[in-house]
Design a protein that fits this description.
The structure holds two protein chains of two kinds. Chain A contains seven helices and ten strands. By secondary structure, chain A is of the alpha/beta class. In chain A, the strands form two sheets. In chain A, strands 6-7-8-3-9-10 form a six-stranded mixed beta sheet, with helices on both faces. In chain A, strands 2-1-4-5 form a four-stranded antiparallel beta sheet, with helices on one face. Chain B has two domains: 193 residues, no CATH class; 165 residues, no CATH class. The chains are: A alpha/beta, B alpha+beta. At the A-B interface, helix 2 and helix 3 of A face helix 1, helix 12, helix 13 and helix 15 of B. The complex binds adenosine-5'-triphosphate and magnesium ion (MG).
Chain lengths: 235, 411
Amino acid sequence: MTKIEAHPLIEARGITRTLPGEIEAVLVHDIDLAIQPGEFVAITGPSGSGKSSLMYLLGLLDTPTRGDIVIDGHSTATLDEDRKAQLRLETLGFVFQFHFLLAEFSALDNVMLPMRALGKLSEEAMRARAMSLLTRLGLAEHSHKRPDQMSGGQRQRVAIARALANDPKVILADEPTGNLDTHSTEQVFDIIRELVGEGGRSVVIVTHDPNLARRASRRLHVVDGALAPVPDANS
Amino acid sequence: MGLTLSIAFTHIRWRLRQTMVGVVGVATGVGFAIMMASLMEGSQKDFVAQLVDGLPHITVSDERRAPPVQPATSVYTDAYIHNLVTKDRRPGIKNPLSVMHMVEENLSGAIAPSVRANVLVRQAGRDVGAIMLGVDPLREARVSNIATKMVEGELSNLNRASNAIVIGGRMALRLGLRVGNTLPISASNGRSIAATVVGIYRTGVAQIDDTTIYSLTRTAQILAGQSALINEFHLKLADAMTAREVAQRIEADTGYKSVSWQEAHEDLLNAFQIRNFIMYAVVGAILLVASFGTYNIISTITHEKTRDIAIMKSLGLKRNLVRRIFVIEALIIGLIGMVAGFLLGYAMTRALALVEFRSPFGDATSLPVVYDVKHYALAGGIALLASFIAAWLPASKASGVNPVEIIRGAS
Ligand SMILES: Nc1ncnc2c1ncn2[C@@H]1O[C@H](COP(=O)(O)OP(=O)(O)OP(=O)(O)O)[C@@H](O)[C@H]1O
Ligand SMILES: [Mg+2]
């Protein structure tokens, strides 16, 4: 076997994010990290420590004040808004604490939204793919329901299906189980863990739950916007 | 494209009542704009048609635009000569037949010679000024529609009696004249005849109906005391709109003053231009107001959908695509409003055309309207453009939201 030089899917190079103001607020401070293909990374940290801010930066929703984020080998420091949007559409999938589905659209239409924006498949192919994603998440019979006709766990699963729509290389999930009961939390977490490694896909998940974090292949800990040593498992 | 359309449709279906209000606004604007344009242009066309049909398109007369150059002035070019008395000229067009043939040579239309004389009509002890127009009834019928405007008698009756005349309805009313009456008419040179009324016409142009008396050429020549006098040609052209150019050519060729109908009614045509300008201003204002409704709807929707916009942008939808969604919404409203406005405008124009009214001298007439695709295209085009602009501003603002701000605030 020849060793293929694999580059990280996401690489943060000394990124800092500050908010301008009378007292400059530092959201993220000089973070270096790399997410390798197939990795399952959990990010933990106290509330307000900057986990979400870091996720927005890694997902190109926000722009670092200093430093560069390299996505799949492409530096993004000089990309304009549209190019970054295109990268998000093709290579990244987001899941937030809140489902953020479009209220007037069915589950199926919500899942098809990123596919339609990308426009690489025919209408039938998109429909078939969306349906198979929903089926995989156990929502086959709910595909025509609108979000307000579903439970919280179901909605979050639709949101995951939508994140998978364009077969992204990286899933970024910011407390995806934060609003769910224990049963749904287990279900959603198991689904997310299954996604890791498919076609080299990586998953980065922010969670408050140390039990969930422990099941990841790697843990990162954020304190005051900077990476810190992971606290002892028993503490 | 399918994506933006389906989102746009969902939004406006969800805001159906407001959408309807917007559609009604645009439809009303477009409808009234069309109705107004139909009526304005209809009445203008009607008026011009009356003018053009009733009167000769060009009148060539023996008058001059400037006093003729006196022989002395042309001989002594370096000297300034004043107090010259203009040399008497025999009135009338010299060699009228050859002039007529010259004009006729390259003319698409008809020409008729006539005699114009200022006369006094004596009736019930009062002298009333009038214009006597001596014509050849057959030829005159080819250059004006006076023969078709007779309300009593025929124009050809002029041939039936000696000194026969045809007078206008207003003059008949004013002087209490009827067919068969005889009245004395005198010219400025003192000659006088006893004329018999053999017909009454009504053109609808008050000034003509009030003052113009038609007679045979010979009768007018006798009054003028100059047999064989011809001092006016009346022309009718195949294309009335070329009258101005043709008149200029005739004047250059013959040296006689040629007045086109446009020149004769210059101030009227100017008034029409002002009227048109006012019309376009009002139509523009109507459509502008209609587009405020669209602006309002799009602003409301973008406001309520800020979170959705943030979501779509976070998924990777580009700014232009997001903006397009709302512009399309406005265009849908504009388009439906436009089509509804077309129907409304057409219906209102039809209804207006049915309204009849009676003028004191005329028969019952209905409002003149024209149906012109241009009106529809113009009103529709402005409505769509206004919708587009009305949506562009709020849509641009909405598509610029920073998704992070919204997502952070909502989770
Ligand atoms: N617009 C802002 N203005 C001022 N401070 C802000 C703003 N946005 C975020 N912050 C601050 O930045 C810090 C990091 O916030 P962030 O949401 O990234 O933390 P977090 O680790 O995700 O917290 P949580 O676990 O509660 O979700 C917090 O202290 C927050 O109060
Ligand atoms: Mg957070």
